[in-house]
Amino acid sequence: MAEFLLHLLRHGAPETPGLLMGRTDGIPTPEGIALCAEQAGDLPFDQVVSSDLLRTRSAAQVIAAARGLAVTIDSRWRELDFGRWDGLAPGQIDPQALDHFRSDPDAHPAPDGECWSALVLRAMEALSALPPRPTLVLTHAGTMRAVLAGLFGFTQDQLWGFDLPYSALLSLRVWTGGDRPYAQIAGLWP
User: Fold this and answer.
1) What number of other Cβ atoms are within 10 A of residue 8's Cβ?
2) Domain extents for the chain?
3) I want to staple 170 with a disulfide (CB 3.0 to 4.6 A). Which of 8, 100, 108, 128 is the partner?
4) pLDDT, tens digit, for every residue of 153-181?
5) Parallel, antiparallel, or unpaired: how do β-strands 182-189 and 47-50 relate?
6) Buried b / exposed e across 150-171, counting CB within 10 Å, b at 16+?
7) 77-104 pLDDT, tens per residue?
8) Domain 2-189: which topology?
9) DSSP for 97-142?
10) By three-state DSSP, how is residue 120 classified?
11) Does the reported pTM lie above 0.85?
């Protein structure tokens, strides 16, 4: 089995924070990009991967350039598609529908949105496609939680127990080469 460090870094704050931003993109603030670069700091990695959205790509390009690396863009690292809720603030959504979604996003996805299990599958496919070398992935909070669900089997209630603010960093030690990847949580920094 091959072992490698995987660092999942949530994008920095967008200009309009607090929205359900799946496929809707947002311009990241300069402060958000700088905080991501600070989080990446002295992390050991020799490849940078990013979701295809601007809010992740912007920080990925800054971080990669500082190390003389290229950025690999992989849309599988995107956030959950919130369908008709995409780009809305939670207060603009029917509270009962939002509660159902939060408790079971597979049984109650956003209207015309992506099911939770589809995001978990997509995130695990993206993880499995990574070469086994120290990697930094600029991604989204939902996708980070999807990786945790796929690797560790955490329930929705358990996943909401992880605070993943903008620029949060989750480091994992990953083993690949068997039937499925295995991992240990090596650190979580807000």
Assistant:
1) 26
2) 2-189
3) 8
4) 999 889 989 999 999 999 999 999 888 89
5) unpaired
6) bbeeeeeeebeeeebebbbbbb
7) 999 999 999 999 999 999 999 999 999 9
8) Rossmann fold (3.40.50)
9) HHHHHHH-TTTSPPTT---HHHHHHHHHHHHHHS-SS-EEEEE-HH
10) helix
11) yes
